[in-house]
Design a protein that fits this description.
The protein has 90 residues and is mainly beta. It has one helix at 2-5; strands spanning 8-16, 23-33, 39-51, 54-66. Helix content is 4%, strand content 51%. The longest helix has 4 residues, at 2-5.
């Protein structure tokens, strides 16, 4: 969708040091920049509990958003019209 709609996407993850061996915390940032230049940034934190190499519990918390969500007007979608003489599908 990003390629088709002209959206730039950036995802960043930062580990947060903890005290428990089988638990990890991390901070995430997702930045979306529309074809119009409109920016929407979402931040959250993730807690994971591990059993050896498997995640057995995952919890997302501390969600924050700056900027309004991108809408249709922020995308660059070149919608093709059907050729003349053919009915439009509904």
């Amino acid at each position: 969708m990003a390629e088709v709609g002209g959206v730039s996407i950036s995802v960043r993850q930062t580990s947060i040091p903890g005290d428990v061996v089988d638990e990890t915390h991390s901070a995430w940032t997702l930045e979306l920049v529309g074809a119009t230049g409109k920016v929407c940034t979402v931040n959250w934190r993730t807690f994971r509990k591990w059993n050896e190499s498997r995640v057995v519990l995952e919890h997302h918390y501390d969600h924050q958003q700056s900027g309004e969500p991108l809408g249709e007007g922020d995308l660059r979608l070149n919608v093709l019209e059907p050729p003349t003489g053919f009915p439009k599908l509904s």
